[in-house]
Amino acid sequence: MRPTVTATETVRRPRYETGQVGTLARDWLALLKPRVISLVVFTGAAGMMMAPVRIDPFTALVSIFCICLASGAAGAINMWYDRDIDAVMQRTITRPVPAGRIPEGEALAYGVGLSCLSVCLMWMATNTLAAAILAFSIFFYSVIYTMWLKRSTPQNIVIGGAAGAFPPMIGWAAATGHMAVMPVVMFGIVFFWTPPHFWSLALYACKDYGRAGIPMLPVVHGARHTRWQIFLYTIVLLAISLVPSVMHLSGWFYTCVALALGLGFIGCAIRVLLEPQDKDGVSLKGDKAARVSFRFSLAYLFFLFCGLLGDHFLRLWGF
Ligand code: HEM
Ligand SMILES: CC(C)=CCC/C(C)=C/CC/C(C)=C/COP(=O)(O)OP(=O)(O)O
């Protein structure tokens, strides 16, 4: 059942400029959440490059394009379904569907159409395993996370985070046609990265989520509890990120990168924990530490996977 949104505060709705082709194209692009796609695609490409086989450049490009399409399609379905809550959150009110610039039916058709296209193309270009995981990721993000977990439990992104962790496995499967330990470890890294990534943002977007009636962790259990959870997850993340080193899947270069980034992320989490706050844990400093932690999370994942790739190629070239 679709919960009723309780809008208790009014939010500013921007003026819509009509008749501009560029503006319209930007809206269709915005439906795909392009900045999120960039990192999702990078993790998928990293999974593909870590695979111990040669994949021909054309197939590699098509596979990466399919991950890009699928991630965007899932984002469009997410924005179609969430149009009611996006319309009451300051952060999302300008999105094309709640702002009325793209009709909801067209957004849904776009998301479903691109989903089918991405899976079919992946299947034709690579193999059944890669296409199946791709289809499952779309289903997991748009149905399991968006339609079910997001509105029903504060553990929504812990479980739902699996959707965003599949791309390295998809990349690997596209290159090899089977699974192995390395892509599963990469899945684990993204899986445990997602909670500190998202909860850092949730700390400063808490009012928005509360207004929309979404049970995000800080809304349900408060900011103090969320700060501790971020800290604990960064510790678990450091441990998981060292699994490739412990299992001798990576060498000294990756170990150094993972240690430095992991300690950096824990440092951010400690700053979030110690930030001046009121008795409920609400920041007295405009959530500065949480904003830094969110930005760091993005850099963390990018550079950690760069570390894995760097190590892989260093070893391949005999260093
Ligand atoms: C279910 C898991 C996830 C949740 C709930 C989540 C949540 C969010 C939210 C709410 C934002 C802010 C978006 C906005 O303001 O429009 C964001 C930004 C971002 N997320 Fe995540 N995220 C998840 C997983 C991922 C994954 C797996 C990746 C990539 C591997 C990722 C990459 C990014 C990037 C790059 C941004 C910045 C976008 C920008 O600059 O506008 N996220 N995330
Ligand atoms: C290949 C494939 C299908 C990949 C999917 C990748 C994936 C799960 C990305 C999640 C990214 C994201 C911004 C989630 C936020 O959703 P939200 O609805 O909580 O955030 P919002 O409030 O900004 O809409």
UniProtKB/TrEMBL annotation:
Gene name of this polypeptide: ctaB
Transmembrane segments: 36-55, 61-81, 107-125, 131-149, 156-175, 181-206, 227-246, 252-274, 294-314
Organism (species): Acetobacter vaccinii
GO molecular function, one term: protoheme IX farnesyltransferase activity
Annotated metabolic or biological route of this protein: Porphyrin-containing compound metabolism; heme O biosynthesis; heme O from protoheme: step 1/1
Membrane topology: Multi-pass membrane protein
Gene3D superfamilies assigned to the protein according to its UniProt record, in alphabetical order: UbiA prenyltransferase
Protein name as annotated: Protoheme IX farnesyltransferase
InterPro entries xref list: Protohaem_IX_farnesylTrfase, UbiA_prenyltransferase, UbiA_prenylTrfase_CS, UbiA_sf
Cellular component, GO, one term: plasma membrane
